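Project outcomes to date are best conveyed with an example. Our students and postdoctoral researchers have been running inverse folding experiments weekly, and each run begins with a structure described purely in tokens. The record below, which covers 456 residues, was selected by the lab manager from last quarter's runs and is presented without edits.
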């Protein structure tokens, strides 16, 4: 074996030397990276999903340093993983065929509803197609990941990688708070006091960064309970604390609400006795951290409501409901109001006798309803409902303690992000949508293993 390793190193060294001589060092390193990743994937196709576990940093790195490729890398990866899925299905057909889960049909129904809206209601087809892609493309990760995952170990390793990558970002967020990273004035209302900065790491938005912490922290907490070695438990306890501290420093009320929902679900399933220390902890934070207390109390003040009705969430929601009443069945069309695509195209809409320029609806469910009508809204709501129901079923039928702990953590994180979407357009962010459906696929993969294990 050592003999072959020497030959492999000699061959790789020779290839690297020629590549560096003719194409440059950067191209040589890029080529070597591709070869290494290809070797890892070919040795075990399940490991290809690990790239998605590091989506946040991979996306940031490629968009920062790779120009054009940075904008299309996830589409290319999706195509490559679909090809890998087909190759795996052909080569390993005797080992495992097409995996079917209870979430397949709801996802298919949702995509069908989105296609129907695209066909019957596209005022500007190019914009509608872009909006359709934003709503559907990243859900396709679910199908790819569920087919490529093979073992419990692979699912657990994927979650560990996701948590560790998020942990690094959490540390960066804490560092930003320590140095008082500069933030735009619009991130804090002029009447709020005590918030000197809001952290965002490499993601550019405290709300998105807070949502990522909300998704990952419950999984990190689950590792505290599932790890066998004390050192591992201690490490993931530190990881969990770092994520929660970084979440606190985002000063994202929406993310806080989502995380509290995640904590409620986690404790409700895990052990209701944890409610008392959690409530005590929240009270202590509000009592002894004035900036947090001010941020929360201001949200319930008449000044906030007045400001929100003038140019904030409340007036946006009221406008969304008014538009929905005018187009109840199929909405105004994909990408035509309330989201990132509409903002990029400077869309506007006639509301009553006034022309209203588009804005972020700050409620993904309402945004979906405005653009795709009640048809799209109910298809999406049914999908989320089925995800919740089948996640609970997965937890119930799992007998192995460590897997059950992981499932509780994943489920809590998913619920937290779902709740956050009631006050933000979190699913408009490709990174968040990809990570969400990646973990949904992990959950249904664990359902698949537990369900068929019961039948044996």
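After processing, the design step wrote out the following sequence:
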């Amino acid at each position: 074996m050592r003999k072959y390793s020497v030959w492999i190193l000699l061959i790789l060294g020779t290839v690297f030397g020629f590549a560096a001589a003719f194409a440059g060092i950067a191209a040589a390193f890029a080529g070597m990276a591709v070869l290494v990743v290809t070797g890892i994937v070919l040795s075990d196709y399940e490991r290809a999903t690990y790239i998605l576990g590091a989506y946040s940093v991979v996306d940031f790195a490629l968009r920062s340093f790779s120009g054009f490729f940075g904008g299309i890398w996830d589409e290319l990866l999706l195509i490559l993983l679909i090809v890998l899925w087909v190759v795996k299905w052909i080569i390993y057909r005797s080992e495992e065929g097409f995996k079917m889960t209870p979430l397949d049909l709801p996802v298919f129904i949702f995509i069908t509803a989105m296609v129907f809206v695209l066909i019957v209601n596209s005022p500007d087809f190019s914009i509608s197609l872009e909006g359709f892609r934003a709503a559907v493309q990243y859900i396709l990760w679910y199908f790819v990941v569920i087919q490529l995952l093979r073992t419990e170990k692979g699912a657990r390793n994927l979650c560990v990688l996701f948590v560790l990558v998020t942990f690094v970002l959490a540390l960066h967020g804490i560092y930003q708070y320590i140095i008082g990273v500069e933030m735009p004035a619009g991130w804090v209302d002029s009447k709020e006091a005590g918030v000197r900065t809001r952290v965002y790491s490499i993601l550019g938005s405290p709300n998105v960064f807070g949502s990522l912490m909300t998704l990952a922290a419950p999984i990190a907490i689950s590792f505290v309970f599932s790890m066998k070695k004390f050192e591992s438990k201690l490490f993931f306890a530190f990881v969990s604390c770092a994520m929660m501290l970084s979440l606190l420093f985002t000063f994202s009320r929406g993310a806080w609400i989502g995380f509290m929902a995640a904590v409620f679900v986690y404790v409700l399933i895990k052990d209701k006795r944890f409610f008392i220390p959690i409530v005590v902890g929240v009270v202590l934070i509000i009592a002894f951290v004035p900036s947090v207390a001010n941020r929360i109390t201001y949200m319930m003040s008449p000044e906030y409501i007045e400001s929100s009705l003038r140019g904030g969430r409340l007036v946006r929601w009221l406008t969304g409901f008014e538009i929905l009443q005018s187009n109840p069945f199929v909405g105004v069309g994909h990408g035509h109001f309330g989201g990132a695509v509409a903002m990029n195209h400077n869309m506007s809409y006639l509301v009553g006798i006034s022309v209203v320029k588009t804005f972020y609806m700050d409620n993904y469910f309402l945004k979906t309803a405005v653009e795709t009508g009640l048809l799209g809204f109910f298809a999406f709501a049914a999908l989320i409902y089925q995800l919740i129901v089948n996640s609970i079923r997965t937890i119930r039928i799992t007998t192995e303690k460590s897997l059950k702990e992981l499932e509780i953590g994943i489920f809590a994180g998913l619920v937290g992000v779902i709740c956050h979407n009631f006050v933000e357009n979190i699913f408009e962010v490709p990174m968040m949508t990809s990570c969400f459906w990646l973990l949904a696929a992990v959950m249904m993969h664990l359902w698949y293993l537990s369900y068929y294990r019961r039948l044996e």
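The chain is about 75% helix and 0% strand. The longest helix spans residues 364-397. The training component of this project remains on track.
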